[in-house]
């Protein structure tokens, strides 16, 4: 096994610890297109993700922006949790999507937002309810839940 492959496997396992229990065995299964996984390990995870110059958090920002622009839906589903693992917050992920709307277009951003909600919604975290101060609402409905938000730790909020 080459040094690049070893580094690629190491990064892959760190970024996607639950993806494949035995990546090396899966690489050697002889299936159609199986070489693409080897190229990905060597070139993307072993070559790009291990380079100096950008930390993993920054690489996730760049990767998300490119994937949103390409409408790479399958890759986005994988890279949203990777971005969290690399230190981005859900608010920052939402900001990447918003920012991409101006450069990649609203349809691409809208698709990415839907994928982010689904991918990040699969992660388990407690919901929190907090009151959002709105003076005009508070005067009329101070005892109601109007103006409250259910927050799941992100900017992907649900207003009541």
From TrEMBL:
<dbReference type="InterPro" id="IPR029032">
    <property type="entry name" value="AhpD-like"/>
</dbReference>
<dbReference type="InterPro" id="IPR052512">
    <property type="entry name" value="4CMD/NDH-1_regulator"/>
</dbReference>
<dbReference type="InterPro" id="IPR003779">
    <property type="entry name" value="CMD-like"/>
</dbReference>
<dbReference type="GO" id="GO:0051920">
    <property type="term" value="F:peroxiredoxin activity"/>
</dbReference>
<dbReference type="Pfam" id="PF02627">
    <property type="entry name" value="CMD"/>
</dbReference>
<protein>
    <submittedName>
        <fullName>Carboxymuconolactone decarboxylase family protein</fullName>
    </submittedName>
</protein>
<feature type="domain" description="Carboxymuconolactone decarboxylase-like">
    <location>
        <begin position="36"/>
        <end position="118"/>
    </location>
</feature>
